[in-house]
Amino acid sequence: MDSKIRLLVKACTWQVSGLLMMTLIGFVFTGSVAASGGIAIVGCIVGFVVYFIHEIAWGKIAWGRVFVSVATRLEADPRV
């Protein structure tokens, strides 16, 4: 499971790339840098919050995970 700081960094890098893409797409549709920037910033804030909550929620769900004991991991790879 990722640490909360790792989740935060992942969310930030994802949102920066999304902000740039949303600004470009917004500009193509509106022809306005101000409107496309506003759309992108609102989308960035909402997307950031939703992504972070989504990752935390999925971090608490055990479904689909494979749990391996430390002893089993050491047998498979003693460098762990």
What is this structure, in a nutshell?
With 80 residues, the protein is an all-alpha fold. The protein is built from three helices and no strands. The protein has one domain.
Question: In words, what does this structure look like?
Answer:
The protein has about 80 residues and is an all-alpha fold. It has one domain. It has three helices and no strands. The protein has helices at about 5-30, 35-60, 70-75. Helix 1 (about 5-30) packs antiparallel against helix 2 (about 35-60). It is elongated, with a radius of gyration of 19 Å. The model has no long low-confidence stretch (mean pLDDT about 85).
**SSE string, helix = H, strand = E?**
HHH
Rg:
19 Å
The biggest beta sheet is recorded as: none
Helical run tally: 3
Percentage of residues assigned to helices: over 70%
Strand fraction: under 5%
Q: Would you tell me the structural class of the helices and strands?
A: mainly alpha
Distance between the termini: 16 Å
Shape: elongated
Count of individual beta strands: 0
In the predicted model, the low-confidence regions spanning at least 5 consecutive residues are none
Overall tally of structural domains: 1
Mean pLDDT: 86
